[in-house]
UniProtKB/TrEMBL annotation:
It comes from the Bacteria. Pfam families: ThiF. This is Molybdopterin biosynthesis sulfur carrier protein sulfurylase. GO terms for biological process: cyclic threonylcarbamoyladenosine biosynthetic process. The gene is moeB-2. GO terms for molecular function: tRNA threonylcarbamoyladenosine dehydratase; ubiquitin-like modifier activating enzyme activity. Signal peptide: none annotated.
């Protein structure tokens, strides 16, 4: 470890350690990229890939993100964008949960999809993508459907859970399980030009109130569809919320829902 520290300190430019130096350290000392990243951050240095984070996220907070575990339920429209942004942000451990494979109707909006990947499991594609864009992130693919029976096991150990599921019963089961497990939940939903985001902490009942009158298990997405842009907008709000939860910064969307109307370009806050 002393040799690694000496190598990193000799490689630093200001307080930044370049990607080339990170790879060189990994190869020289037989360590994973994640192990090298951890050492860099614990020294109070910053992997250069995160330098544009620094005016809003301190190096200490970057270490906290690296040490965090986010669970993302769903790897489709919302989930693909959420996974990509969490990985680029530097969240060190991400569990991606989804039972499905990519189909042709996913191609208009799902970031991880492409014609050559039709028929491939979404979680496997997610794992390959995240390894490619940020090898320091440990993405754990779980090909399973989330439900009340297996939910507690699937979210165990999470610091935050991000809801990217596509049906109301699963959302309500997720809210109940996260509440019982003491895990903050960042909820998002989209349909057509519209979307909403909310953050629920243990003991809150925001999602239960949002969906108290919903009868159709698939929600309104089946009616309104989804274009290419709505998932990216809502997912970005979700990742911002997850980031705030993990670094304990700012005011979250607790006890309130942010309603997004991209047709009229209106954002309305609704208290709950």
């Amino acid at each position: 470890m002393a040799d690694l520290i000496h190598f990193l300190k000799a490689s630093v430019q200001g307080d930044l350690v370049s990607w080339a130096s990170q790879v060189a350290a990994s190869e020289r000392y037989g360590l994973s990229i994640a192990e090298v990243e951890k050492a860099i951050l614990e020294l109070g240095l910053l992997p250069a890939r995160y330098q544009r984070n620094r005016n809003m996220i301190s190096t200490r907070q970057q270490l906290r993100l690296f040490q965090s575990h986010a669970v993302v339920i769903g790897c489709g429209g919302l989930g693909g964008y959420v996974l990509e942004q969490l990985a680029r942000l530097g969240v060190g451990k991400i569990t991606a949960i989804d039972p499905d494979t990519f189909e042709e109707h996913n191609l208009n909006r799902q970031l991880l999809s492409s014609p050559r990947l039709l028929g491939h499991a979404k979680v496997d594609v997610a794992a390959n993508r995240i390894t490619d864009i940020n090898p320091a992130v440990n993405l754990i693919p779980v090909r399973a459907a989330f439900g009340a029976e297996n939910g507690a096991e699937l979210v165990a150990g999470a610091d935050v859970v991000v809801d990217a599921v596509d049906n109301v019963p699963a959302r309500l089961a997720l809210a109940n399980i996260c509440g019982k497990s003491g895990i903050p939940l960042v909820h998002g939903a989209i349909a057509g030009w519209y979307g909403h985001v909310a953050t629920q902490y243990p003991g809150d009942t925001t999602l239960q109130k949002i969906y108290s009158r919903f009868q159709d298990s698939s929600g309104v997405e089946s009616e309104l569809g989804n274009p290419s842009f709505t998932p990216g907008v809502a997912a970005s709000f979700q990742v911002a919320e997850a980031c705030k939860v993990l670094i304990d910064e700012g005011d979250s969307l607790r006890h309130r829902k942010l309603h997004l109307n991209l047709l009229d370009m209106e954002v309305v806050e609704v208290p709950f």
